[in-house]
Design brief:
Blueprint: E1 2-6, H1 8-14, E2 21-26, H2 31-40, E3 44-46, H3 49-56, E4 64-69, H4 76-81, E5 89-93, H5 99-112, E6 116-120, H6 129-135, E7 144-147, H7 150-159, E8 163-173, E9 183-187, H8 196-201, E10 204-207, H9 219-234
Parallel strand pairs: 2-3, 5-6, 5-9, 6-7, 8-9, 8-10
Antiparallel strand pairs: 1-4, 2-4
């Protein structure tokens, strides 16, 4: 299977793994891109911006579109096994629907060195071109796992030694934990939050204090704050 991805930053990242590229489409010549295509015998076409918009189904392609192999997903066991530091850190998304949120979370996950992101196969956004563009290349560096049942997955992660932390309202202040254990951070659906069964599986519910009139923050913003707090506690200056 294949898909079209777009955007200058996305393309520059993909060029570092030319084996996944099937074809390249440009609005104008780019010496760096043409060199990679020539060296790896990848078909490269110069098209109008209108034609690129049609291919990518977006006007935000910046003159760069690539037909590539589908983004891979990995077994859950591989994410568990590849801990990058003493304490593992995984992000579990409960039916997240907005590709901009997923893309932004992948970007933060890459920035702090998280071990991977887990999401459902159905009723959730997958690894789409929009996710790729928003992630600014992180989609190629952060391993993702697709699972069919999030509650069963959480229980499996518990058996592997992880503690499940749900980000939701009415929990304890996120600053009260030291995060000196293997963590799975659960981020809920943009509208419904964390589902009841998954919430009941959580070892902790952590919340961001809200002193203004807003009741909640955007899912990717909340995830970013919490991930950096975990990183700060684990690696203090």
């Amino acid at each position: 299977m294949s898909q079209f991805v777009y955007g200058k930053n996305v393309i520059k990242q993909i060029l570092t793994s030319p084996d996944v590229i099937l074809e390249v489409y440009l609005a104008s010549e780019d010496k760096e891109v043409l060199k990679v295509c020539r060296e790896n015998k990848i078909p490269c076409h110069i098209l109008s911006k209108k034609e690129l918009s049609k291919l990518s189904k977006s006007k935000h392609h910046q003159g760069y579109v690539v037909k590539r192999k589908d983004y891979p997903t990995y077994p859950l066991e591989e994410l568990i096994a590849q801990k990058k530091s003493e304490h593992g850190l995984l992000i579990l998304l409960d039916e997240m629907e907005d590709p901009h949120n997923l893309g932004a979370i992948l970007r933060t996950a890459d920035a702090i060195g998280a071990d991977g992101v887990i999401f459902k196969k159905n009723h959730a956004v997958g690894l789409t071109p929009t996710v790729a563009k928003v992630s600014a290349g992180a989609i190629d560096r952060v391993k993702c796992a697709e699972v069919t049942n999030l509650t069963q997955t959480a229980n499996k992660l518990k058996e592997a030694g992880y503690w499940i932390l749900g980000a939701d309202m009415d929990g304890q202040d996120y600053r009260t934990l030291d995060y000196d254990f293997h963590v799975v951070l659960v981020i809920g659906n943009e509208g419904k939050g964390i589902s009841r069964l998954l919430r009941e599986t959580c070892d902790y519910i952590i919340s961001l204090p809200m002193v203004g009139e807003m009741e909640s923050l955007n899912a990717s913003v909340s995830a970013g704050i919490l991930l950096y707090e975990i990183n700060n506690k684990r690696f203090p200056i």
